[in-house]
Amino acid sequence: MNYYEKTIKSERLYEGAIFDMEKLTVELPNGKIAYRDVIRNPGASVIVPLTDDGYVIMVKQFRKPIEAVSLEVPAGKMDPGEDPLQCAQRELKEETGYTAEKFKKILTLHPAPAFADEALHVFVAKGLSKGEASPDEDEFIHAFKYKLDDVIQLIQDGVIRDSKTIASILFTARLLETGGLDF
Amino acid sequence: MNYYEKTIKSERLYEGAIFDMEKLTVELPNGKIAYRDVIRNPGASVIVPLTDDGYVIMVKQFRKPIEAVSLEVPAGKMDPGEDPLQCAQRELKEETGYTAEKFKKILTLHPAPAFADEALHVFVAKGLSKGEASPDEDEFIHAFKYKLDDVIQLIQDGVIRDSKTIASILFTARLLETGGLDF
Questions:
Q1: What domain range includes position A94?
Q2: Which of A21, B82, B98, B164 has a CA between 20 and 30 Å from the CA of residue A102?
Q3: What residue in B sits closest to A17 (Cα-Cα)?
């Protein structure tokens, strides 16, 4: 079965601070022409900061698109020239103040593959030491410590709705249960 | 702590087939002005179709933004006037051919709360009967049956990268293990 959509034309419609937008003209497998609006951004790193005694460092911030304060694992987009691990180290420090001795990549996630090219690189961070957070000047974000089991309960209760957080936390819990996080 | 960003102005920059885009002018908690580019769409329903003998019905389709064939749980966006359950029933039938006797909502997900208002309504579907799929004319999508354990292995192997699929499958597995899916 051929699923491939060949790009015939690509038009940049918008360039923004967080993402750009392109309209692609594609040829479908049946030869017909169709259009795809695509959001492009540089990707981001996501960190699940795990303490030795079973806590996770989470962050709270206002998410304008959903008009809500959202409880999430720390994350942030890659700076130019940065690799995913460097981004994870920097964002963990900036958003929570914590540094970590060890990082292990556990997942790559596409949050919205129907309309965005974004890839999220998910790391578990261990060997945590607390320091001072240093968010961007106009970034209102604060770190809180939760027991992993309580984070899972907040998912079950519908309080945590951020998809990357749910995928990352549940996968981390599964790895812990199966001994897959001994690093 | 006040996190709220008040909307000062909202400007529609783009209207597309899949999403619209707005530029919002907001007032930050410190009184400063900032801008937020926001993708708006009507939301979608996601279905985890579970057979009595531990299989999940999955779909394969090409996702142009990531230039890859993606293995995902069935999902599709809400038609005007449709509620999430109606959308789940319709999309399950269209994409896989299956109908289900029972649907249970298990999660609401925000796939990209940093830049999109999209909400995904995730249902587990049980009591499945197989019929004919009826995708849209230019939609190239096919259904495949996988053991739930094999889907989890494909997540672990990095083959499945769609965030809604990973969140939905891992949460379903957890509910099954804790008896939370007896409906």
A1: 44-178
A2: B164
A3: B37
